[in-house]
Structures are given as C-alpha cells and as structure tokens.
C-alpha cells in the first residue's frame, strides 16, 4: 500500500494545526471576555461605593449655611480621594486589562478607604470573598498599608468597603479569579504561541 502523497500529508498537517490554532484562540478569547465581563460587574460595584461616599459627604454639608472651615478641612481629604477614584474609574473602564491602570486604580481605592476610615472609624466592616461578614475593620495605619501588603504577597486582602455591602468584595474576588485564569492560560505552552501571535497580554488583579 503506497504512502500518502507529500502534498496530501502536508495539507493534513496544515488542517490539524489550523484546527488547533482556532481552538486555542477561541479559548483565550473566552477567558479574556470573562475578565472584561467580570470587570464590568466590578466597575458597577465600585461606582456604587463611590456614590455612597459622595452621598455621605453631601449629607454632612449644612443645607442653608456655608460649611465652616473646620468642616471643609475635615472633609477635603475624602472629597479629593473620591474625585481621584472617579477619574481613575473612568480611565480604567476604557482599558480594564492594562496593568498600570489597574495598579493606579488599586492605589486610589486604598486612599479613598483610608480617608473614609479616618472620617468614619466606627462605620467600617469587612466581608470575605464569598460575601460573608468577616469582622469589624481596624483603621488603616496609612493609605498604602493594606495595599502594599497585598501587592507584596500577591494576594488580595479583604477590603473594608464604605458601604456595608458584600457586593463589591464578591465582584473583586470574581474579577481577580478571572484574571488569574486568563493569565495562566496565555503563558501555557503551546497556547502562549497563540497569545504571542495575536498580542494578548497579561492582565492585573485589583489588589
């Protein structure tokens, strides 16, 4: 029995490689889409937390009388942190897979939480990633205390969200998990060849 012609064997190899490439590409695209979808949920949760903070600031301002200098100086750091977070949320919304943007967002979030805890030390709670109430949250020693520790260990510590709701922590946990799965997939051989060819880059979790 004669062997297959060289041309036919070559076409079979090409077909197999093309089938594998399409399958690997589709898997990476699905994982990337999962990250984007998870971030959309996280973005909505962060905007809700930001709205809660802004509403709290507005509620402390007298309706008729101008705020006193002491009141303005007390609220100013929280107001500035909220403005910064709002700006970075808008930027990150356009490029949620950019590690630099995500790092800047994480820093702004920690600054806001620290300012909130200094303003409301008795109104902070922590939820675990599954949404269960963890514990009352201690005051952060600095705006980068928890953020630096989380970044150095590579894990996300639970956040003491201003609004006492588990939605933001659940959304952050799901986003970080989606990022972890996506990043693991694009560095696995031979899928990393596909990622390199289509220029898929690692994303960053919100620590």
Structure, explained:
The protein has about 210 residues and is mainly α. Helices cover about 65% and strands about 5% of the residues. It is built from six helices and two strands. Strand 1 and strand 2 form a beta hairpin. Helix 1 runs antiparallel to helix 5 (about 165-185). The radius of gyration is 23 Å and the shape is elongated. Residues about 140-155 have low confidence and may be disordered.
List keywords for this structure.
two-stranded antiparallel ribbon, 207 residues, 2 strands, mainly alpha
Could you outline the blueprint of secondary structure elements for this entry?
Elements: H1 6-60, H2 69-94, H3 99-119, E1 125-127, E2 133-136, H4 145-153, H5 167-186, H6 191-197
Antiparallel strand pairs: 1-2
Helix pairs in contact: 1-2, 1-5, 2-3
H/E element string?
Answer: HHHEEHHH
Sketch the major β-sheet.
2 strands, antiparallel
Mean pLDDT: 83
The assigned structural class equals mainly alpha
If strands are numbered along the chain, what order do they take across the biggest sheet? 1-2
Question: What is the gyration radius calculated from CA atoms?
Answer: 23 Å
Strand content: under 5%
Helix content: 55-70%
Distance between the termini: 63 Å
Number of strands: 2
Shape: elongated
Low-confidence stretches: 138-153
Instruction: Count up the helices.
Output: 6
Quick overview:
This protein has 207 residues and is mainly alpha-helical. The protein has helices at 6-60, 69-94, 99-119, 145-153, 167-186, 191-197, and strands at residues 125-127, 133-136.
């Amino acid at each position: 029995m004669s062997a297959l012609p060289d041309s036919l064997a070559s076409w079979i190899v090409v077909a197999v490689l093309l089938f594998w490439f399409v399958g690997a590409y589709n898997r990476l695209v699905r994982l990337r889409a999962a990250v984007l979808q998870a971030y959309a949920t996280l973005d909505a949760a962060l905007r809700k937390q930001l709205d809660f903070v802004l509403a709290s600031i507005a509620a402390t301002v007298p309706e008729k009388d101008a705020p006193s200098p002491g009141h303005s100086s007390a609220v100013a750091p929280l107001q500035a942190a909220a403005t910064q977070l709002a700006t970075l949320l808008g930027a990150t919304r356009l490029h949620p897979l950019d590690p630099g943007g995500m790092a800047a967002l994480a820093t702004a979030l920690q600054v806001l939480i620290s300012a909130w805890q200094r303003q409301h030390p008795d109104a902070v709670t922590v939820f675990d990633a599954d949404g269960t109430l963890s514990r009352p949250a201690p005051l952060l020693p600095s705006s980068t205390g928890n953020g630096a520790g989380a970044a150095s260990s590579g894990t996300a510590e639970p956040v003491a969200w201003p609004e006492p709701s588990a939605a933001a922590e659940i959304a952050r946990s799901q986003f970080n998990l989606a990022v972890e799965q996506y990043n693991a997939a694009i560095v696995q051989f031979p899928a990393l060849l596909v990622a390199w060819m289509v220029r898929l880059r690692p994303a960053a979790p919100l620590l």
